[in-house]
Amino acid sequence: MTNRLSIFSAAYWKTAAAELRKLNRLTLAALIIALTVVIGSFTIPVAENLHISFNFLIVAFGSMIYGPLLGIFAGAALDIVGYIAHPFGAFFPGYTLSSMLGCFIYGLFLYHRRISVMRIFLAKLIVNFVVNVGLGCLWSQVLFGKGYWFFLVNSLIKNSLMLPIETIMLTLLLQALMPILTRAHVIPVQNSNRISFI
Q1: Consecutive sets of 10 residues in the chain, 198 residues long: mean pLDDT of each?
Q2: At what angle do helices 55-85 and 10-18 cross, to 10 degrees?
Q3: CB 69 within 8 A of CB 17
């Protein structure tokens, strides 16, 4: 198993690109997509075009294993397959872009990296506020014709409240799976069996 790498090194991106040629990673990405689509059936509505979902757990887990580059393709496939399985209105490529970007961000923070609560928090922070709030409100404005600020308020409140909860949930999931993934040489060996804070 390759050691932890810096995202600023050529070796990191070469390793991430190599994931695109590994059959086991492509198969895992397909399974992650299928599982995410199934879990996507169960959401909690909050407001117009706003709901709570647990997809992020599976998406972040997959991106941690197969990295940011395969994550981009998995994110695109996830949105398209998800739309086919659960069509809601017309297909909109903006949501595909958001899905791709979310997978890329999770991969960037978690793939071949030392897993920590702070790293998980930062990944969730960027996904929640750049992708979910920033882009999500823009896509809602384009689709529904209401002002950006109309969607911003609800989305900002929801994503702010969910950030610590989602960080804890993702930390607990990765903590439970980390020893298994390390022993199977799926992720790099961590400094300890526990996820550190920093």
Answers
A1: 76 94 94 91 72 89 95 96 87 95 97 93 98 93 85 90 94 93 84 82
A2: 50
A3: yes
What DSSP string describes 5-40?
--TTSHHHHHHHHHGGG-HHHHHHHHHHHHHHHHHT
CA dihedral 137, 150, 158, 94 (to 10 degrees): -10
CB 43 within 8 A of CB 56: no
Place of tokens 């900002």: 156
Q: What domains can be seen in the chain, in order of their start residue?
A: 10-183 (1.10.1760.20)
Which candidate, 78, 89, 77, 85, places its Cα nearest to that of 139?
Answer: 89
Q: 7-43 burial, b for 16+ CB within 10 Å, e for fewer?
A: eeeeebeebbeebeeeeebbebbeebbebbbebbeee
Q: Which of 42, 56, 45 is nearest to 154 (CA)?
A: 45
Which of 157, 140, 7, 118 lies closest to 67, judged by CA?
Answer: 7
Q: What is the pTM of this model?
A: 0.90
Let me know: does 159 contact 56? Beta carbons within 8 Å. Answer: no
Q: What is the pLDDT of residue 21?
A: 95
Residue 110 and residue 187: Cα distance in Å, rounded? Answer: 10
